[in-house]
Amino acid sequence: MEREDLGALFARITRRLIEAERPLLEARGLSMWGYVVLSHLSHRPASTQLALARAIGYDKTRLIGVLDDLERDGLVTRVPDPADRRARIVELTPAGRDRHRDARDDIGAMEDAFLGALSDGRRAALRRTLAQLAAEGE
């Protein structure tokens, strides 16, 4: 049997995960990119909009709409950067932290079900391996 390319395998798995995450995020009032922003800010606060766009790999002009939605919902704030008044620092609000935590918990439960056929040891090994591969690309 011919071995399937890693890219094809990852693409299929990624599509399945995205489709499983989408309704969970929608139930929490978040878009996929909104969740990405909240996730980034929960680990690395006080990022300028430009730095945030670069960090998450998203177009800076399209990020404005995502941030507008998150700010309107009280999940982030944008304040002028004291070092550059033209730039805005994006910060997670307590409501944003709570919403992110709830969505992350929902996604964690879905991932546990998704990986349900694997033993605990294989799940842990998979997560370690994926984290290592992801870190090598940064």
TrEMBL record:
Gene3D superfamilies linked: Winged helix-like DNA-binding domain superfamily/Winged helix DNA-binding domain (1.10.10.10)
Domain HTH marR-type: 3-135
Any one GO BP annotation for this protein: response to stress
Matches recorded under InterPro entries: HTH_MarR-typ, MarR/SlyA-like, WH-like_DNA-bd_sf, WH_DNA-bd_sf
UniProt superkingdom: Bacteria
Example GO molecular function: DNA-binding transcription factor activity
UniProt-listed SUPFAM superfamilies: Winged helix' DNA-binding domain
Protein name: MarR family transcriptional regulator
